[in-house]
Structure formats: structure tokens, C-alpha cells
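Show me a record, fold above all:
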Amino acid sequence: MPTETFVQVDGAWTRLLTDGPADAPVVVLVHDGAWGASADVTWGAMLPFVASGHRVVAPDMLGFGGTAKIVQLDSSPYEFRIRHLFALLDELGIDEKVHFVGNSFGGSLVLQATTRPEWAARMASATSISGTGGPWRSAKAQAELGRYDGTEADMRRLVAVLVDDFPGKDEQVRERVRWAAVPGHYASMVAPHTPVPDALRRERPVSNYPADLKGTGVPTLLITGEHDDLVEPGWMDHLTDVEPAIHTAWLPTMHSPNISHPEQTWAVLELFLHEGIATP
């Protein structure tokens, strides 16, 4: 069973789950960014498989779960959370290279981390499950994931676009409702999208992504669901066109197979972590 821990990271209380042998290679699991997400919501079913041979660190990101409801509005939604993750590793005394695995927004965060040399130097590998790195989200994703009215019925709508039917779907809905009700989570989710007057509007610096994936030196795996309509078809091609060394794999699932098909997802991930290859 994973252990729940709270630590202070740069003054921010941070909740994390840990499991697995203390002397094994470290895998950091980064949860999705949908309403009510947390380490256990996204990774609870898959975590035991990963922990069978790895030391698992699965934190709640800033703004989510039991971690401080802090958002930084003058940078990308990825950057301040990436800094927080590496600061957490420092707090835990983990100085070796670690494997990062993220789902959806968490996967995008992991890919973005590979593009900065100071972060890439600490990464043994990067795996993104259905996270594009930012672009190529579908119109359905924009329409369905950007809103939540606070009810269990509406959370059921959200979960239905994330995962296939599976025995734990009702529990997934209930747990997301529970975490979404934590004070500060709703405000953390909507704050970056608050309209500002035209006179105060500023353009963000132009991103070099995905061009800056080229030559990162971080072994990278992309996993996509064949029935995932929250991302544009062929999104992985945009990344492999830039860096042909990136591995890719397909699963016959929707957006979050780590939730609905943990054993099947682990079979693909385990092969990559142990042998540096991926199944088609």
C-alpha cells in the first residue's frame, strides 16, 4: 500500500504518495489536469504495478488534491509546476536521474520539462500518456474539460470523456468530486482563464515547442489511445517529425488508459523503462 506524506516544498505544503523499494530506480508519476485530479485519482490503479520494481513518488501538483492551492499567473501553467516537482525531489534527497511519467496535462508537463537542459539533465526518461505538450487538443477537449458545475452528475460527464467504461468508474467519479470540493481547487482551475481588460492584455512570448524537443537527450515515449477524441489524430507525428528518436505506442482505449486499463498500460511502460523500447 502506498504511503501518504505531506512535506513543505518552498513553503508550499505538498501531498504525495510513495511506494516501492527505497533503493530501486525512481519513477515520478504526474497526474492529469482535469477537475478533481490527484495522484491517487490518476494513478491509484496503476501504482502497484510500477511499485513492484521501482521507487514511486506520486505528488499532487500545485492547485490539486491535498497540495497548496497556489497558481502562478505570469508564467506558463507548466513551468512553475515543473520547478515545484524538482524542488520536491530535492526535499526528498533524490539526486539521481529519475523516470517521469505523466497523463494528459501531466504528460504535457513532462514533455515540456525535457526541453530545458537543467531539467533534462535530471531525467532518466520521459513518458507522456495522451499529453501533447500543449498544442493539438481537440475542439471536444476545449468544450468538455473547461467547465464543471460542482455536481456529481457533471463530474460523471467529465469522466465519461476521459476513460472507457471499467469497474471502478463510479469510484473515479466520487473521488474526483471529493478532491474538486477542496477549498481553493475551483479557483485555482479558473484563475488562469479570468478575462482581463483589453488595455491590460499582453501576448505571451512565442513558444519554440515542439522544435525544442530536438536533441534533448532524454529517452521519450508517447502513448496514445486509439479512441481518444480529446487530442487531434496524428498528434504524435508532430513530435516524431521533430525528434525521430521518440518512441510511440498505441492502446485500444480513450484518453486515460492508466485509469481504466492499468495493467495494459503498465505492460507498454515497463518494456520502455527496462529495455528502452516500445510496442507498436
Q: What stands out?
A: The radius of gyration is 18 Å. The chain has a mean pLDDT of 97.
